[in-house]
Amino acid sequence: MLGDKVFLTQTDTTIGFLSQNADKLTEIKQRPPHKHYIKAVDSLATLNTLTRVPQKHKNRVRRAKITTFIMGNGQSYRVIRDKHHLLLLNRLKWAYTTSANLSDQDYDEAFTKKMADVIIEPLQTTKASSSIYKLGKKTTRKIR
Questions:
Q1: What are the structural domains of the chain?
Q2: Is the pTM of this model over 0.85?
Q3: Contact at 8 Å (CB) between 20 and 4?
């Protein structure tokens, strides 16, 4: 069962953990359980099954590259376009995603490989972080 495993892989922005089990990620990262994870999705069709994108922002979400959107329900979503990252997401449809490190710590390769159930290589250096926007019914606020 893929949904319960923690994957270590190159994401569209960094080396990261992916899983459909948020509790496992919280335990690995040792972060407060009330903090939400970004849900990476394989397509706009999958995104539409998880949340409603406000009409005013549909074009922005459809055209965005490496951008995370916080929706009205407080959850964060990013539609993935990176081919390597999509190899896994096409099988899962969606997964919680987070950087592969302890909260507020630097990347430690030995730690990450020990904590992952499945390692998908190659693992490369990090890229720029995603932009983050909070979408309201009529407003947009840049978070990062």
A1: 2-142 (3.90.870.10)
A2: yes
A3: yes
